[in-house]
Amino acid sequence: MHWSFRRGRRLVVLASVAVTLPLTAVPSPASAAPAPAAAVVPQPVSQLAGQGPGFTLTAATRIAVLSGDSASVGVGTYLADLLAPATGYTLQVVGGTSAPANAVVLDPGGPESLGAEGYTLSSGGSGVVVRARGAQGLFRGVQTLRQLLPAAVESRTRQSASWTVAPTEISDSPRYEYRGVMLDVARRFFPVAQVKRYIDEAAAYKINKLHLHLTDDQGWRIAVDALPNLTKVGASTQSGFTGGTDWYYTAADYREIVSYAASRFMTVVPEIDGPGHTRSALASVPELNCDDRAKAPYSGFDVGISLYCLSDQKHKDATRSFLQTVIKAVAALTPGPYIHLGGDETPQATSEQYDSYVKAAADATAAEKKTVMGWHQLGQSPLPAGSLLQYWGEDSDRRSIGTTTETTSVGEVRKGVAQGAGFIMSPSDHAYLDMKYDASTPYGLSWSGYVPVQRSYEWDPATVTGKLDGTGAIVPAQKIAGVEAALWADRAYRGSSALPNSSTYWPAPQEYADFMSFPRLPALAEVGWSPQSARDWNDFRQRLAQHGPRWTAAGIGFYAAPDIAWPGPSGTGLDGVHTLTTGGKALDVPGSSTVPGTRLVTWTAHGGANQKWSFTRQSDGTYTLVNQASGLCADVSGGSTSAGAAVAQWTCTGNTNQRWTATPVSGGYTLASAKSGLLLTTASTADDALVTQQAASGSALQRWTIG
Ligand code: TNX
User: Which of 141, 144, 192, 327 is most buried by a 10 A CB count?
Assistant: First the structure.
């Protein structure tokens, strides 16, 4: 069967896929609202908008898994668990060979042509069928299915909605097998629970590799039994922190991450970085240093500061045996095929020293029957067959291609290609999640420029190692294994354009991760999954906008990037009248006073006009907040820039001490004075608590729900 349809300006032709619904037709409930248009990210290979009201889930809907294989039944249970909190339904997961009525059918017996991750999804009035070749493809299809349901399905609390699956016919499979994301748990330690949460967030966009940057100058995060100092000493620091005792993963923690990732069909790629980025090892193991003395642990912000001692045979041997011990231990805990050996930023190493590291680390990796992965610098040294290099160059490198002044990175890529290496594309000016979106981004760096959402989206892995006009790619298309987004964390604090000081706010790792990854991780997920010909920025930004309410429902503190037209109060569209609450208390003008200068308080929410604020977006993206009882503006008294200054109502002037920047954080928004940068803060959760401006502290008293 062949379908074709129009999506935007493009005509997408579906290759032969036969989807039949082995279902008895059941009438859909008369109350079913018309299904919303489905905005799926990543864009499926083909999607046909269906007719009719769609299929509405009820408490009686069953999840029917057409096979007894436990992995597929596991996907059915996963789906039931996913739907339970918001719908309040405990959907029954049933086996069997034929599909019952009123069911979501998961059929792992699809044709081989679907590959390991491909799936078809057919939804209509009589039910939903996801068909794949095994459990992994079903899991990817289930991620699409959840995006066909209303955004409220992502809520962790019970919601009232008509749980209607938009009617559609989808046929889908990935462009690249490797679609990863990297977490820099070395510079900023992510506790296990936060890693798991991030796994779920990434899996929703069909990411299938989790690269853990486990070691760096600022910390060693994986326990190795034979080398207890690595975690006793080497894990005691982070970028900006000292004195830790448990900032590492025990073997049990790491196994828990690996098995949780596996339950989301995600492979963990551990990185042991070297021969640079090794200060935490040098601080823990004396014989890795040329003078055989352990260095002090490091909690700073620099890169390129360290190197294993590789200048004489004795120390080369010590490094080799250290790497054997570490890589053996990590490999034993890692079911996935890769060990990432780092290799970046080693200005102090001679090429002979660098080669000796790569040989020692690669031999140890091969001895454990694992595949070598590394940053593209590794290409300079001889590598085992089948190695994978991760390209992190940028447009400035591409500009040099074919000239007499090709950059070092281009040379290293050429050497990797000559050895037959495969490549993962992580160009820093598109795929680095630690680059600021724009000048307003509180966290991260900008050495590779700003990376707004459009930049994270508009590039092609096939041409990113070619000239800027898209020709002359150095890496042949068949050697590109995929794409990876990288969330470095050396500058994971507010105000990162300068070094931190004692009042700098350090967000929880997941708050940093949410803000920097959303919406760019979904953009990069689409780069890795969808055919280049099916990708279009204008189409993407419209689909992406529909995901803002999903992230809000899921409690993801995303960046409401100004280039996306977010619907409703989830993004820049805050214009309108709102109640601002924190801890159940609302921002309030006491006694409905109309006197300028009256200080604002928080008070039990009662819906009165003195607790209603009209938000009006200004040209700089900030908002003025006008009280509905008095008509006066929320104002930092005297235009103060000091922490602790009062916030009162005042005649509206348009000055910056009456303009507020709303930033989504998990569980609400912060509101920063455009003049001082300080946050609207209430003193307590008691009635009549005074409101002031204060430095960001992460406190719930600064987190406002905009209702
Ligand atoms: C460069 S990119 C690094 C990291 C830093 C990052 C910050 C790469 C392989 N190395 O050590 O964290 O820049 O953006």
Answer: 141
